Automatic annotation (TrEMBL):
CDD domains: HTH_ARSR. GO terms for molecular function: sequence-specific DNA binding. Residues 14-71 form the HTH asnC-type domain. SUPFAM superfamilies: Dimeric alpha+beta barrel, Winged helix' DNA-binding domain. Keywords: Activator, DNA-binding, Transcription, Transcription regulation. GO terms for cellular component: cytosol. The keyword Transit peptide does not apply. GO terms for biological process: alanine catabolic process; regulation of DNA-templated transcription; response to L-leucine. InterPro entries: ArsR-like_HTH, AsnC-type_HTH_dom, Dimeric_a/b-barrel, Tscrpt_reg_AsnC-like, Tscrpt_reg_AsnC/Lrp_C, Tscrpt_reg_HTH_AsnC-type_CS, WH-like_DNA-bd_sf, WH_DNA-bd_sf. This is Winged helix-turn-helix transcriptional regulator. It comes from the Bacteria.
């Protein structure tokens, strides 16, 4: 559980900012950029991890290395607005490797998905065999990504 926010602590906020850009930065370099001793910097990072401000570290894989050259954002509306229908849909998204993100949103539809697949034909199969197989979906709208001027996802 995340405890008090580091925004009130400018040093911790700076550590989080640097680590969000480069999670593999050596502690010595991070300490130098922050203006702390390496031991004090390491203690700060460990405290941020303990408090839950840092939830993990991961590699950012280029989509081509995952054979994911086609990205679409898909909005999904459910015909049933029950907790059971939502949980069932979310389980289906968790089981589908093509779904890289699944967000329950407000507005005229219930979900926003980021889907990554090899190509348009792969997306067609996903649309038909995965989304089309879910009985409580009432609407599906696909927005194909043609380019990304900025993408800060890690």
């Amino acid at each position: 559980m995340l405890q008090p926010t580091p925004e009130k602590d400018p040093v911790s906020a700076r550590i989080l900012q640097i680590l969000s850009r480069n999670g593999r930065i050596p502690n010595q370099q991070l300490a130098a950029e922050i203006g702390l001793s390496p031991s004090a910097c390491l203690r700060r990072v460990q405290e941020l991890e303990r408090r839950g401000a840092i939830t993990g570290y991961r590699a950012v894989i280029h989509p081509a290395a995952r054979e994911a050259g086609f990205t679409a954002y898909v909005t999904v509306g459910l015909s049933q607005h029950s907790n059971e229908a939502q949980q069932s849909f979310e389980r289906a998204c968790l089981a589908a490797p093509q779904v890289r993100e699944c967000h329950n949103i407000t507005g005229s539809v219930e979900y926003l998905l980021r889907v990554e697949v090899r190509d348009l034909e792969s997306y067609r199969r996903f649309h038909t065999e995965v989304l089309g197989a879910f009985p409580q979906i009432s609407t599906i709208t696909t927005h194909v990504v043609m380019g990304s001027a900025k993408d800060d996802r890690a």
